[in-house]
Design brief:
Elements lengths: L26 E9 L5 H11 L3 E12 L4 E6 L2 H14 L2 E6 L5 H11 L5 E4 L17 H8 L5 E2 L3 H8 L6 H13 L5 E3 L10 E7 L6 E6 L9 H14 L4 H17 L15 H4 L11
Parallel strand pairs: 1-2, 1-4, 4-5, 5-6
Antiparallel strand pairs: 2-3, 7-8, 8-9
Helix pairs in contact: 1-7, 2-3, 3-4, 5-6, 7-8
Length: 298
């Protein structure tokens, strides 16, 4: 074992004496929707945070009634209460990094952006638009508000292919298209863009995410393709893992590379607890060696 995953065996918050004299884990935050099925959204984020050794807090923007097959309903939270949650969390915890996920409405996006614009925070924006089962999770009227108010605050924007196409207003079918789309997305104000590769055709048993940063062409970041139908919440999990690693002090590219490895392992040991698409196994790296599939002795 090497790298940050060795720390999972004895993270900082488990070190120290029995009297509790141990350092606290870094605090991170997710601002997103609740997935009643437990595989995506706030639930996936909190599981990821805990697995990676950071303390996760949350601001819930919408409740969903969903399982692995479908989304039956969405109940958005009053924007004033979203603001109250956010201000209360930020006043009580030293948040090192945060991510946004499903925000659903224009009013909620404006509220969140207004609160965040007042503070110097590391922000990962995951522009969640559609669920794994195909249900729309962002109102059509909210897209322009997302582009105008929230994306300019992003240290990293993490769209998948359909989300990047929606926000960049173009089809993406080639590396050259990715380059053009990334440039358009950065013109919206994001400091860096990670176009996730899960919705592109996979070749040579690999999946390629593309990282665009100022002054350079998008860099391909490859990982092994895991063939599984249990991929509910993969986008949430990757963005949450990046947020956790940023909270732990890693550079942006290091955070992304470690998060890819984390997600790859979660996919390798994914499972299906019910009907439809199952979740990734957020706890897998705690029990299995990343490379050799050796069970950890915990």
């Amino acid at each position: 074992m090497n790298g940050i995953y060795q720390e999972l065996l004895q993270p900082a918050w488990l070190q120290g004496d029995l009297e509790g004299n141990r350092p606290s884990p870094p605090c991170v935050l997710t601002i997103a929707g609740s997935d009643s099925g437990g595989g995506a959204g706030i639930q996936a984020d909190i599981k990821t945070f805990m697995a990676l050794g950071v303390y996760g807090s949350s601001v819930i923007c919408a409740l969903t009634s969903q399982n692995g097959e479908r989304v039956d309903g969405i109940f958005p939270i009053n924007p004033e209460f979203v603001a109250l949650q956010l201000e209360t969390v930020l006043s009580g915890f030293p948040v090192k990094a945060l991510k946004t996920g499903m925000l659903f409405s224009a009013d909620i996006i404006e509220t969140v952006a207004s609160c965040l614009a007042k503070r110097a925070l590391t922000i990962v924006v995951d522009p969640v638009c559609v669920s794994q089962s195909g249900h729309r999770l962002l109102e059509g009227s909210a897209v322009e508000v997302l582009k105008k108010h929230l994306i300019p605050l992003a240290d990293l924007l993490t769209p998948n292919k359909p989300e990047a196409e929606l926000l960049a207003e173009m089809a993406i079918n080639s590396p050259e298209d990715i380059k053009i789309a990334a440039k358009r997305l950065m013109k919206l104000g994001a400091k860096a863009v990670l176009i996730k590769g899960g919705h592109f055709d996979c070749t040579d048993d690999t999946v390629t995410d593309w990282l665009a940063m100022p002054g350079q062409s998008p860099v391909p970041l490859q990982m092994r393709h895991i063939s599984t139908g249990n991929n509910h919440g993969t986008g949430c999990t990757l963005a949450a893992a990046i947020t956790a690693h940023l909270g732990l002090g890693l550079s942006l590219q290091e955070a992304i590379l470690h998060s890819q490895k984390y997600l790859n392992t979660c996919l390798k040991f994914s499972y299906n607890p019910g009907k439809g698409s199952g979740p990734v196994n957020h706890a897998a790296p705690l029990f299995f060696h990343l490379g050799d599939n050796i069970q950890y002795q915990l």
